[in-house]
Amino acid sequence: MKSISITKEVYRSFVIEKVLPAVVFSWPAYPNVTIQHDNARAHVTPDDKALRRTFDAYKNRGWSFTLRPQPPNSPDTNILDLGFFAAIQSLQNKKSASNIQELVDNVLRAFDDLLGRNLEGLLRQQLQGAPLVKGEVDTQAVNVVCPEDVYGAAKASLDAIDVAAMEEPIEEELREARAVNELAQELESMDLFDDMADALDALGIEAISVDDE
Length: 213
Hints:
Number of strands: 2
GO molecular function: nucleic acid binding
Helix content: 40-55%
Largest sheet: 2 strands, parallel
Structural class: mainly alpha
InterPro entries: RNaseH_sf
Shape: globular
Distance between the termini: 10 Å
Protein name: Aste57867_2699 protein
Organism: Aphanomyces stellatus
Strand content: 5-15%
Low-confidence stretches: none
């Protein structure tokens, strides 16, 4: 396995040759499908001619595909970032990887270990929590909104050891979330030709090689 530079041409080819056939093969019913992705420069736009021609060809087979980029500057309500991606990233980061195959294996294990019920209601909870931070886009996601009095009552019913055991994983998760957020903000501020190694070094992250020897 070798690393590949993701260009618009590579991305378009993957969507047309891999993603759309996989959706048609696996989709259970109701062939009206919306594909969503973020606004990375390598991603094709909804008016991409080659993609439109492919969508039209599928329409003749009874399938309706639509491409909708995520709304910009709204990370707290983008379900791709909010749900599986964020959870899987947190899980796979707990295992080290020295090459691409190990990284892929870690992601697959994280996906298999993630319980679907843990994600149910997450978007609704996020929408309910957004007004509490006045819609600020640079605020950490409000994954759980718990009234302060309820949280205080729960702590009061526990002894000091149990309180510490309860709060420790929460603090660890918050630290990981802040680190991931800082990395994402740094990467988003970079131009395509910025030095990735320098950026990672500035964040205190040791770069690894993902090319097979």
